[in-house]
Amino acid sequence: MRIAEIGEFGLISKIASLIDAEGDRQSPARRDLLLGIGDDAAAWKSPGGIELITTDILVEDVHFDFSYTGWKDLGWKSMAINISDINSMGGRPRYALASLALPGRREAEDVLDLYRGILEISNKYGVAVAGGNISAADKVVINITLTGIAGGDMLTRTSAQPGDLVAIFGFPGLSAAGHKALSQFINLDAEALQLFKNAHLRPAPDFNSGPLLADLGVRTAIDISDGLAADLAHICVASGVAATLHTGKLPVHPLLIKYFGRDSLRISLAGGEDYELLFTATPEVMKKVNASFDPAPAIIGEITAGKPHAVSLLDEGGNPVHIDFGGWDHYKHPD
To answer: Most buried in the list 7, 57, 222, 326, measured by CB within 10 Å?
Structure first.
């Protein structure tokens, strides 16, 4: 049945019923929810601590392409990128609002699949979907607003100091490889296709890592959305420092090297949308981090005194490496 046939409120009713049936009623966030869908605003009891809120938007033909993106995967990713923001602040996610702009020609069941993807990852991380909004539009737009709670100390971009080590979880560049593989129809073996595709469509880093890093004494972090080097530059600007990255220490996945060769380093540095945590810490704190995570993060560089925004790349011999790692900018990319 098409959205135009059941109308806005018919669709909202179906979404509310799905959330009631499939949302995790036992999560602390859900138990504290006082008012969900159906009123002018959602309401919940605050457990205290530092409250966080973030929002992100996905636009058809800008952030995703239905020729290779399914509705359920789209729902997962739309929530994952917001959970990642809360995690990168050292917080745990709580309540979400999902606002949609939809063409009337789209099928209502597709929208329910979108919500199934949203609920799948929400249930995993204890998020209560508390409401949202729906509007007509020529293209599909998904906007998630997510709240969170941090403990006594947050992770921010502003706390990096000269002498800090720079570290990263996971393998950067896999999402960008997935986008290239799916949009350019690159011929891959089954293992590589699954790895790259999942990284791009269903990002699933450990979104519980941020609070643990904060507990261990880490104070500076960012999630990799614009690209590893560009996001490190964001930290440098916010903290008033510079940084050096050692390309030989960068964790580049063997399958990325196999299929992208010499370009794999640039993809790892500039690809973006990995949503892994990039963070800095003193050597003493980094030792505690390495002992607390399995696998441990890769230490790939250090924070230095210097011109803010300056990120220098050095190879294994200490020689400068020149790579364009400008990262993502909406208004420098064609729609």
So the answer is: 222
